[in-house]
Amino acid sequence: MKHTRYFLLLLSFNMLFSQFIFARDSLFIIPKPLIQITKPGFYTYPIQEKVFVSQTFLAAADLLHEHPFIHFKTVALLSKGKPIPQQGIILLLAAPKDPMPQDGYRLQVEPKRITITAHNHAALLNGISTLRQIAYTRKNGDKLPSVLIEDRPAFGYRGLMIDVSRHFFPISFLKKYIDIMSLYKLNTFHWHLTDGAGWRLEIKKYPELTQKAAWRTHHNWKDWWNNGRQYVNMGEPDANGGFYTQEQARDLVKYAAKRGITIIPEIEMPGHSEEVLAVYPNLSCSGLPYKNSEFCIGNKETFTFLENVLDEVISIFPSKYIHIGGDEADKAAWKKCPKCQKAIQDFNLKDEAGLQSYAVKKMGTYLTGKGRKLIGWDEIIEGGLGPEATVMSWRGEKGGIEAANSGHDVIMIPGSYLYFDAYQTNPIGQPEAIGGYLPLKKVYSYSPIPKEIDAIHQKHVLGIQANVWTEYMSTENQADYMIFPRALALAEIGWTAAKNKNWDDFILRMQKHYLLMQRFGLHYYKPSNELSILSRFDMIDKTASAIITSEQFKPEIRYTTNGATPDANSAIYKDPISFNRTTTIKAALFKNKIQQGKTQELVVDIHKAIGKKVIYNSPWNSGYPAQKELTLVNGQTGDLTYGDGQWQGFLGNFDVTIDMENNTALTQLKVRFMQLTGPDVYIPSDVTLSVSKDGKDFKTIRKIDNDVPATDSSLRFKTFDFDLKGVSTRFIRITGKNERTGFVFSDEVVVY
Questions:
Q1: Domain region containing 16
Q2: Is 272 a catalytic residue?
């Protein structure tokens, strides 16, 4: 009896231990699969692998050579009606009655064999990508636990764009980029080949495009932009830039296709064409180089040129779509051009906007005649383009919602979520970027189908794409830094069903993918040691709370509320900390009792103006309402981005009056502003404070000048602090002068 009990205990222990081993050794796949079930046992790759494939997947088998532990010389074809081999790697065509979706795959890892089953080539490549990713995310990638995975994408279009006009990147970099895309099942590479900063594709009929328009005076885009924006001849000692030959482009198309990725080329028209018109000025309205950015639409030679260019582009790229840009055309030259004005009359167009639409439609018709489909930015629908065109929404969610609801197929690229040229952490101390704030968590939070899209039109959302505009990415390392790991979050929101998305689970899996990025030599962004402390206020119970967050995984955050600097013995932060009076909180990150990064602090203000009425003498901008009338007196601090819902934006002067309801004795007023010059956000040149007891007659108390230079392009904050000791009043008017004609953003007016 004792022996029996011992055996049962041992058996139970072994089962629990085995389950523990399986849990520890589970697979951390991104994007998260639909079904993932760990099984007993492991598969170990042999020195020489046996590979068996269905005839349909003979070409796909070549991608197995990209796996670091699969080595084979020949492939054996599977025969219909014969048993499936019990050992080796098997690429199996799904039976017609297999209930697996057409775009799905099944990956089965067993101790003696690995089987990938799919209905078609593209789906099978996704299964191979999963198998390859697993190898790179495991320290001992030659051994993997048995598992059953059944998976399919939520969206058919999962794209990543890179702009090679602002900064030219070599083919070797683009191939690495495509390699990583394939590992994460991103299936569309949008290649932004032309723009004012440089033409990057060889067009044999127009050699000047690559002999001069591909080369400029400065390597760094900003230096070039601020110093004349000149192009130079290839071969000159100061020439900066480059281009891709047609042979190189075809090779890249083939390289991407092998990995399941389609390349969509973009050739900008009718705007963003300064580089073309510098070398072919006869295609501009003025006939002069360096004068116009837009093609002359009234000139027949313009369309001859564009059609000839597209003919060569089509011969290189087999993609269904050809991207023509179609946005941001400056119509000033068209208004003065006799040829363009004649075209408006001849074609019965309403105005210059109609002229732009005419040009886009004409190119769409031409591409349709060649068996292709036009794709462009939001503006292509403004002139009434038919639903046969596909829209890339670059104007945030608004453009995509409008396009989908009007019956157009749309690819969602909401700017505040999927523009990888935005800062991904506190901009202070970071390399210069275009502006904005897009941390990894915000990328992951995006839902590709906004609730504003009608149910009947949701089918028009083909998928999502992130854009990598490269004005401020002058090196390969900097591009890596801005793209990764945000591209991993992009991959998951494009592939994984919304019901299976979970941030905590994603960030747990992410920890295994730093190994993959290191193995591919990516200079990725590393989680910051800085903390974010924000305050929130509960209007009902009149208490404030401080919320502390970190980019680190499972951080050890220690804090104080007594003014002391936190150390390794201070309280550990777990949940938001509540306060019923003004308190200064200080916090720092620790690891192994050693502080990581700087101590952060925030004064949590519980002040007299919270919940009071705010009179807007100048209205807020409709695009940045934040919390509307409550924004400036809700007891809540803004974060590092003006798009966080706590920063209220103004295009004119900042001019508000706070009604304290009764005559109130005051001691202090503080108002904070933000500056980020890239997107034209500036601190007011001065702030004036006035008071009144009746709301009509105001007395100026003091004016404080801004001492932050408007030339400082880094993220800056300034608090204007007014001493009000001895002042008693009901109405307080704060006026901030907006001399820069850009945006002014404020998050809270604190009154004591």
A1: 2-151
A2: yes
